[in-house]
């Protein structure tokens, strides 16, 4: 039997890289993509592709069509972060994070669907974030893009059901990756009104990420999901994040945001 073909976006680092490496070790035929090659050693196939550029995605699709009859699993992991006050974030930076975190995933999915449909039981996993359910101050645009990915996932789940393509959203909490150092910080040297609060909020966030979960746990969760008979529509990893999701559903919203303000506000 042929190995299942998995395409992982954002495979040059972090969650995408570890997931691509782990699935390759488990015997999958893995193709990683991003704008640059991984800095660490890797054995899976690699194609350069900017997911915000339709012409590059078209070229990637042509290459995939030559190599494979179908794509079995698409993992949309490419992403970026941005921090700063809503009032001071330049519009072009807001458009950029939407281009990568939302429209990029949409373009990849739209383009590859015809290949995924050819698979017997295709699967799509979008990497969202726990920050999609609980919006964080000075991370508004990140939370907004991840909430969009959740909505995208749910609608796609319904649209693709008749084709037996399963769609899910994985919402990690703090993970120790290059995401922290790659985060765009347009607020720097900007507006003194928020400076102190942003500094404190970001310091806490970065500390949490640096002490965060090993990305291998996300890779193993993805492996479990693609082997599950039925994937959950939205899920997370780790007891503390599962508890946050439950509490968020049962506690009054004002109480939740009272805590969030204490931590990040
Ligand atoms: N780390 C966390 O704490 C955390 C928590 C929750 C959710 N997440 C989500 O997990 C996903 C992966 O993040 P990570 O932690 O692995 O961060 P990371 O190490 O910074 O990886 C981000 C990846 O996205 C790729 N990428 C960025 N822009 C791209 C573009 N235009 N086209 C193609 N690829 C692009 C980067 O590669 P190139 O620069 O080579 O293009 C890189 O491979 C993201 O969606 C993030 O929002 C992360």
UniProtKB/TrEMBL annotation:
<keyword id="KW-0560">Oxidoreductase</keyword>
<dbReference type="InterPro" id="IPR051911">
    <property type="entry name" value="SDR_oxidoreductase"/>
</dbReference>
<dbReference type="GO" id="GO:0016491">
    <property type="term" value="F:oxidoreductase activity"/>
</dbReference>
<protein>
    <submittedName>
        <fullName>SDR family oxidoreductase</fullName>
    </submittedName>
</protein>
<dbReference type="Pfam" id="PF00106">
    <property type="entry name" value="adh_short"/>
</dbReference>
<comment type="similarity">
    <text>Belongs to the short-chain dehydrogenases/reductases (SDR) family.</text>
</comment>
<dbReference type="InterPro" id="IPR002347">
    <property type="entry name" value="SDR_fam"/>
</dbReference>
<dbReference type="InterPro" id="IPR036291">
    <property type="entry name" value="NAD(P)-bd_dom_sf"/>
</dbReference>
